[in-house]
Amino acid sequence: MTQAVSTLLIFFSLLLILYLIAIVVLTLQRIRANQLKLISANTLLIVYATQSGQSEHLAIQTAAQLAEAGEQVQLLNIEQLSTQQLQTAKRVIWVVSTYGEGDAPDQAQHFDHHILKQNLDLAHQSYAVLALGDRRYANFCEFGHRLNQMLQQHKATPWFDLVTVDQLSQDDLLHWNNLLAQQFQHDFALSTPVREWHAIQLKSRHLLNQGSQGNALYHLCFAVSPTMTWQSGDIVEIQCENSNQILQDFQVKFPDLNAIQIEQLRDRNLRDIPAQLPQQQTAEWLEGFKQLPVREYSIASIQSEGQLDLVVRQEIDGAELGLGSGLLTQGLKLRQSIHAYVRCNQSFHLCKEARPAIFIGNGSGIAGLLAHLKQRIDDVQYQNWLIYGERQSTFDHVFSEDLETWQRLGQITTINRVFSRDKSSEKYVQDVLRKHANEFKHWVEQGACIYLCGSLNMAQGIDDALVEILGAKQINALRKAGHYRRDVY
Q1: For residue 463, what are the contacts with CB-CB under 8 A and spacing of at least 6?
Q2: Cα–Cα–Cα angle for 81, 86, 91, nearest 5°?
């Protein structure tokens, strides 16, 4: 083959490569253009931001009902929402939750810190915001409020005032549906996720930290039916109830109530007694008592153990124990049953791939980490690193026997425990990260997933340390890939 022919072949090969590149670029541009075209002048964009799945459920329900009403609906996870799509949309419904004390859900972090803070012109856009939250937190529905404020700063026009929902309150959701019905001239059905309640029976309860400076920490084991299923990372919701003693004391105050009527008040708030109107029947008066709330706890066991384990810290509410922790650590007697519902916590499930895992937590957050460790050991995945913080090594060395056994058997690679009240250079879990930064980076480079479970204050300290070690860009990439998962409260 002559040199001229070789040169000609190389030339045509390069032309072919350039042609193929051009086709790929044009195809990507068309796909991008089609995505933007999907949001036309008639499109109603519904965006959800969720941590536990509740906002997503409500957004899907709203989208389905609006589609039935003839609307051209597009549903998007906020993580998928681009700046161009936001600027193109003329009508948007936002269904967003707040995580912890005012944070956006993990999947909304990029939107909250980057897209929303851009210099956007949304003067052509109208919208509504449904914000889900929990009034026990000081910054109730903070992300929803922040989103609403920023949209108005960008000149978008609200259809009506922001609607807040406290713990999926039926009254709050009915108010939202009524506002949508007025806006779209279409009836909206009220539908919240169906909760399958199970009776669980207390088998044992042990104090884990006798003598500790911290509030009492208990390990509880419940017998459950085979129909109650969960994955590691899931959450159990406990319906708060009045103890037998509280009901007996109430009957002393209202001796005309019979045993059946007293039992009807088992899950009702007896601290807020409705006034009994003249001529009002007792049954109608009893209906006026508000239901006690539910409390959420990370599950500390896995399905194959055949029991449901919790780790509960006593919370002090004034001079009394909190509703949930008081019931579980004192009010509930052995072999007594209460009602529980398992909530899928998909954002804190284990990664599906077989990867190394770094578990970080403090306090009662050990519950979610224990379940994950048990599941990974069950799956013969032994590249596990646990970093856990408590108060005092003398009193707060919780679950040490199990953890040391797993490490001795090679089922946990490394355990770092720190105690904030001990005299040590490492007092908090973030101190461990900084001290072992190189090793931590090596694990991440090997594809490790990071799981964080525990208090909000600890979580903020961990986030700061992670940014120092890996940089904000890599942390956002880990979140987006599902390799940094949190369950904080």
Answers
A1: 475
A2: 115
Q: Please check the confidence at residue 25 and state whether its pLDDT lies above 60.
A: no
pLDDT one-digit tens code per residue, 402-423 = 999 999 999 999 999 999 988 8
- If we measure between CA atoms, which residue out of 418, 334, 384, 339 comes closest to residue 232? 384
pLDDT, tens digit (0-9, with 9 covering 90-100), for 219-275: 999 999 999 999 999 999 999 999 888 899 999 999 989 999 999 999 999 988 888
> Do both 299 and 372 map to the same domain?
no
Structure tokens at 254: 């209202």
Specify the number of domains making up the chain.
Answer: 3
Q: Based on the domain organization, do 175 and 237 belong to the same domain?
A: no
- Cα 194 from Cα 148, distance rounded (Å): 29
Place of tokens 């006034």: 275
- Compute the distance between CA of residue 12 and CA of residue 286 in angstroms, rounded to an integer: 87
Residue 363 forms part of a structural domain: yes
Q: Contact at 8 Å (CB) between 176 and 93?
A: no
Structure tokens at 197: 């309640």
Kindly state whether residue 25 falls inside one of the protein's structural domains: no
Q: From CA 165, how far away is CA 288, in angstroms rounded? A: 21
Taking alpha carbons only, the member of 99, 24, 25 closest to residue 55 is 99
The CB-side HSE value for 57 (13 A sphere, CA atoms) comes to: 15
Question: CA–CA separation, 192 vs 411, rounded Å?
Answer: 41
- In this structure, the answer to whether residues 204 and 175 fall within a common structural domain is no
User: 3-state DSSP call for residue 259?
Assistant: helix
Cβ atoms of residues 380 and 351 within 8 Å:
no
Pair of tokens at residue 389:
């913080």
Residue at 392 is within a domain: yes
In a domain, 28, yes or no: no
111 and 41 housed in the same domain:
yes
- Over residues 321-345, the mean pLDDT reads 93
Residue 123: give the domain boundaries. 35-184
pLDDT at 201: 98
Structure tokens at 59: 């957004």
Q: What angle do CA 397, 207, 310 make, to 5 degrees?
A: 90
Q: What is the pTM of this model?
A: 0.82
CATH of the domain at 146: 3.40.50.360
Name the pLDDT band for 362 (thresholds 50, 70, 90). Answer: very high
* Burial grade of 413 (CB within 10 A; 0-12, 13-18, 19 or more): middle
- Residue that the structure tokens 């919780």 belong to: 398
